[in-house]
Amino acid sequence: MSSLNLQRNSEVFFSTVDLVNGALNTAMTPSNTWKLEVLAGFAVTASAATQDITSMESGTSPDRSQQRFNTAINPVDWNLQTYIRPTGAITPAAANGSAAGTTVSGNAKPLADWFMWQSLVSNTKVVSATSAEQSVWTTGGKLNTINTAAVTGAASTRSNFPSATENHLYFVLDNVVYQVSNATVNQATVDAGIDSIATTTWTGQGTTLQELTGAARSNAIAVFGGINNAGALVADSVTAANLAAPGAYHPYNQMNVAAAVTTNAYIKNRLSAIQLTHNLSGTVSTYTFPVTALTFDYTNNITYLTPEELATLNAPIGQFVGTRAVTGSATMYLRNDTNESSQFMRNIMADSRTTSAQYATANLFIGGTTGSNVTFSLPAVQFEFPQLAVDDIISMSVNFVAQEPNASKGGGGEVSIVAVK
């Protein structure tokens, strides 16, 4: 009897290397292939659009038949959740340096899933055509959603792009391996519930979902580990210290920083806070609150194009991005004092302007302002009216939408992300 495949033994990898179309395992290195330490509940699904043809006739013996056609392959949907883990790699520099905050490749990579964030917000692929790693994170571990020129150790980036960068996701479901080809990152949702560790939920699509068999599966198992085609157990080939190792990948929980392999940190949400500013009648008020819940969401609204030819099982031929949506929410206790939540609610509700985004900001301190943390800074936000929730302790929640500052209309600028270990 064949064995069952268990979620507990499953792994997920992100790569620019396409094994389905014949790439060798030696093409994978820690500079183009990364492991994602996912939480339980990840999913990958493929489906088809269908059309039912039915007939309706009168008479004593009518044709009552029905035919169903698969008309198109829908884009593959995938989602997974990872912990936000700062690495300490916050300083762009020349390759092979060993100064504090630097990596062997010279790129700033302040989060374990830095490549996911870059694929979400930038037009710059994480690996160039010549297999050189290229991060757009800048000095201090910062990622901006604005056009930025290249500097030493940091590639140029543009946030207003027509289509998302495409890579490949590998779902090693115990002993069965699937590849999501041309995978795009559509959405990231950060959850900072105070009783948990900070996480990001990633969602996206791809053009095809294919099981790796034969030589392609052998190449995958040689890198990721598992039971090979001959039934033998193969250890994974990860080499954290050597970022040029062939047939290896970069682990999620470690980073080579200042010429030493270190363990990436977790972020404790209990220390999180939010800072809001709002200018009402020429007076800027700053509010810094401890929170009971905090979320941040960045969405590309990607749409796939699929032909509609008759007598053909059509497949997606490409994608383009829609309106970028950057939103957030915070929940806090209702407190009555100067620069407390009651005053914030009063001032927002007293603001008669149809838009006040250019006079308001929000800084989300996930994990606080000291120790391991990540900060999402929104330079222009439109606040909704805060809402009260009556419970044992009365609380207040507010939703907000990030917008571009006046100076950069059409140029991005909705958010900057800074990660510190």
Total strand segments = 27
- Which regions contain 5 or more consecutive residues with pLDDT less than 50? none
Distance between the amino and carboxyl termini: 48 Å
Helix content range: under 10%
Strand content: 35-45%
Number of helices: 3
Mean pLDDT: 90
How many structural domains? 2
What is the approximate shape?
A: globular
Estimated structural class = mainly beta
Could you state the order of secondary-structure elements as H and E? EEEEEEHEEEEEHEEEEEEEEEEHEEEEEE
Let me know the largest β-sheet. 13 strands, antiparallel
Radius of gyration over C-alpha positions, nearest whole angstrom: 24 Å
* Oligomeric assembly: single chain
Defining key terms:
421 residues; mainly beta; 3 helices; Pnp Oxidase, Chain A; 13-stranded antiparallel sheet; six-stranded antiparallel sheet; 27 strands; 2 domains; single chain
Draw up the topology in text.
Blueprint: E1 11-15, E2 33-36, E3 43-45, E4 48-54, E5 66-73, E6 76-83, H1 114-121, E7 142-146, E8 167-173, E9 176-191, E10 199-206, E11 208-211, H2 214-224, E12 226-227, E13 233-234, E14 254-257, E15 260-263, E16 273-280, E17 283-290, E18 293-299, E19 303-305, E20 318-320, E21 325-333, H3 341-350, E22 360-366, E23 373-378, E24 381-383, E25 387-389, E26 395-402, E27 412-420
Antiparallel strand pairs: 1-2, 1-8, 3-6, 4-5, 6-10, 7-27, 8-9, 9-10, 9-11, 9-18, 12-13, 14-15, 16-17, 16-22, 18-21, 19-20, 21-26, 22-23, 23-27, 24-26, 25-26
